[in-house]
Amino acid sequence: MPKKQTDAAAAVQPANFETAIAELEALVQRMESGDLTLDDSLQAFERGVQLTRQCQSALKAAEQRVTLLTADGQERDFPALGEV
């Protein structure tokens, strides 16, 4: 069964983390409005899962880069605001 045009467009990954977060926030707002049909809600949910996974992956990659860039290569927590 061929995929719908909207499914193919939804599979496109945003250019960066910020764009993905903005799209995810817009999806949440649309879903919370209660104006979507069941099918539209399911498609929005599926897209939200894709975006969430992409954002988690980007955050994990950023965390790994920070770990590599520390002076001794040891992973540590960032200090809380005001503790620096």
Automatic annotation (TrEMBL):
It is found in: Cytoplasm. Its EC number is 3.1.11.6. GO terms for molecular function: exodeoxyribonuclease VII activity. It comes from the Bacteria. It is an enzyme of class 3 (hydrolase). InterPro entries: Exonuc_VII_S, Exonuc_VII_ssu_sf. GO terms for biological process: DNA catabolic process. Keywords: Cytoplasm, Exonuclease, Hydrolase, Nuclease. It catalyses: Exonucleolytic cleavage in either 5'- to 3'- or 3'- to 5'-direction to yield nucleoside 5'-phosphates. One of its GO terms (cellular component) is exodeoxyribonuclease VII complex. HAMAP family: Exonuc_7_S. Bidirectionally degrades single-stranded DNA into large acid-insoluble oligonucleotides, which are then degraded further into small acid-soluble oligonucleotides. Heterooligomer composed of large and small subunits. Belongs to the XseB family. This is Exodeoxyribonuclease 7 small subunit.
